[in-house]
Amino acid sequence: MIxxxxxxxxxxxxxxLRGVGQVFFQNNPWTGLIIIAGVALSSWMAAVDFLLGGTxxxxxxxxxxxxxxxxxxxxxxxxGGYVGLLxxxxxxxxxxxxxxxxxxxxxxxxxxxxxxxxxxTHALKRLDLPAAMFPVVVLLWAILAGILNTGLADFSAASPxxxxxxxxxxxxxxxxxxxxxxxxxGRVFVQLxxxxxxxxxxxxxxxxxxxxxxxxxxxxxxILLGYVFGQYEPILRTGVMSSNPILTAVALGGxxxxxxxxxxxxxxxxxxxxxxFMVAMTVILAPMGLPATVLPMxxxxxxxxxxxxxxxxxxxxxxxxxxxxxxxxxHPGR
Amino acid sequence: MIxxxxxxxxxxxxxxLRGVGQVFFQNNPWTGLIIIAGVALSSWMAAVDFLLGGTxxxxxxxxxxxxxxxxxxxxxxxxGGYVGLLxxxxxxxxxxxxxxxxxxxxxxxxxxxxxxxxxxTHALKRLDLPAAMFPVVVLLWAILAGILNTGLADFSAASPxxxxxxxxxxxxxxxxxxxxxxxxxGRVFVQLxxxxxxxxxxxxxxxxxxxxxxxxxxxxxxILLGYVFGQYEPILRTGVMSSNPILTAVALGGxxxxxxxxxxxxxxxxxxxxxxFMVAMTVILAPMGLPATVLPMxxxxxxxxxxxxxxxxxxxxxxxxxxxxxxxxxHPGR
Amino acid sequence: MIxxxxxxxxxxxxxxLRGVGQVFFQNNPWTGLIIIAGVALSSWMAAVDFLLGGTxxxxxxxxxxxxxxxxxxxxxxxxGGYVGLLxxxxxxxxxxxxxxxxxxxxxxxxxxxxxxxxxxTHALKRLDLPAAMFPVVVLLWAILAGILNTGLADFSAASPxxxxxxxxxxxxxxxxxxxxxxxxxGRVFVQLxxxxxxxxxxxxxxxxxxxxxxxxxxxxxxILLGYVFGQYEPILRTGVMSSNPILTAVALGGxxxxxxxxxxxxxxxxxxxxxxFMVAMTVILAPMGLPATVLPMxxxxxxxxxxxxxxxxxxxxxxxxxxxxxxxxxHPGR
Lengths: 334, 334, 334
Description:
The structure is a homotrimer.
Chain A: H1 8-22, H2 29-42, H3 44-63, H4 68-72, H5 75-91, H6 98-125, H7 134-147, H8 174-187, H9 194-207, H10 209-229, H11 233-237, H12 243-255, H13 261-285, H14 295-310, H15 325-330
C-alpha cells in the first residue's frame, strides 16, 4: 500500500496530486505537481477545474466510505478532477455565466464520478481490467449532452481532425515531430501549449523512465504513421493524433504489462490500434456531436490486456500490484 | 417464494397483474390492478397491449420451461407486457392497419421478450444487478427501427423535450408541481392523464409506503431541478422530466438497497443523475430517431448499485431476497 | 482436439481452410475449400483478401503464443481472414491505389484481429458465449471509419435495404425463393453470384447435413417473412434479408445447442429475431455510415444462448466441446 503523508494538512493535497499523475498512469504526487503546473501555465482555469472536481470527488468518496486505499491512490481525485477539467473545457463556450455554471457542473461531475468510478472499477476487476478513463468519458458525455437540452452543441467540432483542410499537406519538418509529440501530451488535457507538454514529459520522467520512454515511442509512432499515410501536417501539430497512442504506450509498456522487449512491441501495436480507433470514434461520434477524448485508448488497452491474458507473449501485472514499471520488474518470479 | 393463488383460473391473472406492478418494482397484484386500471382510464388500447404482450410472454416462458419462480413473480408478464405497450404507443402512428399490425407486433414483442429477459437477467446476476427494463428497451428499439425499413420514422419526436419552445418560461405554480409529478407516473406508460398518475401512486402506496414516499421525493427533485435550471415550464408539466427520477428513487430507496437515511440520500443522488442521463440520451438518440424511455433509469440504477457494492455507505439487498422495502427491514442482521 | 495434418506444408493451408469454414460454423477444411472456391468464382480478389488476412492473423497468433488449439481450429484465420475480406470489399471504392492500400489494410486487419479475437473470446467464455464475428465487426467498423478521416464515406450505402424503391413490389415467384436463399449464403461474403451460394451450401453439406438443413430453413423463413410483410421483392433477391437468419439458424440449430425439434423451433425464433435486428441495425447505423453485416446474428445468438442457459427447453453444448451437430448427438448423456 502506498504510504501517504500522515500530516492531514499534507495528505489531502498529496491525494489530489496523485490523482493528477494518474491521468498518465503515474501514482506519484511530484509527477502530479509538475503536470498540474504545466496545465496551469496553459490555462489556470483548467487546473482549478481539475483540483475542484478532484476535491469534491475525494470528499464524497470519503463520505460514502469508499475503499480507503483507492482514495489514497488518487482514484477519485483522478476521475472527479479529470471529468471536471474536461467538462469545463468543452462546456465553457455554451455558457452564459461560465464562472457560476462551471463551478456547479464541475462539482456535479465530481460527485457523480464517485459511484461511477467505484462501481465500474469493481465490475471490471472480474475481467482483470482497469476502469481507467472509462467512467470519466461516460460522465463527460452525459453532462455535455445534458447541458443543452434542445439542439446539441457540436462539442466534436473542437477536434482539429474534423476541420476542413486543403488536399496538399505542408512538408513534415522537425517541427512536426517536436510539436506533434509535445502537444500530444498537452492534448490529454485539451491544452495546446508546447511547454505544457514538455512539463508533462518531465513529470512522467520523475516517476518512471520506462513510462517516459514509452510515451515518446507512442508519440513518434503517431507522427510516423501520419507521415506514411500523408495526413495533413497541421493536424499532427495539434497533438490530436498523438494523445491516445502516448497514453496507450505508457499503459501497456510497463504499467499493466511487465516491461520487456515483447511488451514494447505489443504496446506499440496497441498504440497503432489506438490511432485507428481515435479517428474512427471521432467520425462515428460526430453526428451526436460528442468528443472521443481518450476513450479510444481505454478500449484499446482493454482489448490488448484481454488478449494478453491469453497469450504467452506478454504477462499482465496483477491489478492489485500495479505501481510503476520499474517496481514491477523487481518482483520475484520475473 | 411468493405464494401465488393455487386456483389456476386466478393464478394467471395474478401473474399478469404482478407484472404490471413490477414496472414500479412492486411485486403485488393489487398494485398491478390499480395501475392497469389507471392506464386503461387514459388509453384502454395501451392496457390491452400490456395484457396481451404479458400473456404471450408468460405462455412462452412456461413453454420454454423458464424459472418458475420468475414466471410467478411476473418477470415475463412485466417485460412482455411493457414492451407490448410501448411498441403499441410508439409504432401506432406508422401503421396503415393498426389493429391487425399492432396485435402482431405486440405478440412478437411478447415472444422475443422471453429469451432476452431471461438471458440478460441470468448474465447480469453475475454482477448482482437486476436486468430491470433493459431487455424491454433493447427490444423496443429493435422493433421500432425494424418496423420501418426505409427511412426511420422519428419516434424520438414523441419527446416533449425535443420540441421547439420560446426562450421565456411561464411561471412555476402549484400546477407545475402537481401535474409535473402526477404525469411523471403516467409518463412511464407514455400516458398524459393526471388521474392515471394519481392511481399509480395509490397502487404503489397499497404495497409500500416507502416506495410511494421515494417516488414523490424523486418527482419533487425533478421539478426542483427544472426550477433551478430554468427549464421551460410546460415541458415539466408533461412529466417527461419526472418519470426517470421517480423510478430511480423507488428502485434505490428501499427496493435494491436497504432503506435508511443514507440510502435516501444515495437514491436522490441517483435520481439527479437519471435526469441528466435522460436529457443526454434523448439528445444522443435523436439522430437515430429512437426514444430513451426508461433506459436512463436502468443505467443509473446499475451504476449506483455497482458503486454501492463497494461503499460502506449503503447496503444492497441480495437479488434473490428482493421483495419490498418494508419486508427487507425486518430481516435479521439489519 | 481436432487432428491437424502433421505435414507442415499441409497443416497451414488446412488451418486457413478451417477458418473459411468457421464463417458458417463448420470446422472442416473441405467445407472451407468449397466455400473459398465459391467466393473466388464471384470475386478472386475477395478470396485473396480472406487468405491474406487469415495468413497474417495465424502467423501473428503463433508469434504471440496464442492458444494452439484455437489456432488449429482456425479461430484466427477465420477472424483475420473475414475482416480482411470485408475491409477489402467495403473500402475498395474509397481507394486511389487499391492494390497497395488494400494489401496494407488487409494485413493490418489480420494483425489487429489477433488480440481482439483472443481477448473477447476469453472474456465471453465467462458467460459461456462464443465471440463469433463480434471482433470482426468491431474491427471492420474501426478500420472503415478510420480510413476516411474527414467525412465518412457511406459504407452503409452498400446495403440494398436502404435504396429507394417503388411502393409496389413485383410478384414473388420461385425465383424470389431460389435467388433470395442462394444469395443469402453469398451475401455473408458480400457476393451476389448464385453459384457462390450453391457452392457454400454444398460446402456446409459436406460437413453437416443438420447445418445445411438449418441454413435452408433460416433462408426460407426470411423469404416467407418478406412475403407476409410485403417487402419489396428485389431486395429479397439480393439475399440481404437471408444472410443473418441463415447463420443464426445454423448456429442455434445444432452447433451451440444440442439438435432436437425444440432447438429447431428455438433456432427459427432466433432467425426471426435476427431479421428484425438486421433491419433495425441497418437503419440505426445509417447516420454513421457503417454496415451492420453479421452483427445482428451475433447479438441474437448471444441473447438466445443466454436465454437458453436458463430454460429447460433447450440445452447448450459446452463451448469446449463444440464440433458439429452430428457429433454432439453421439455424446453420452444426450
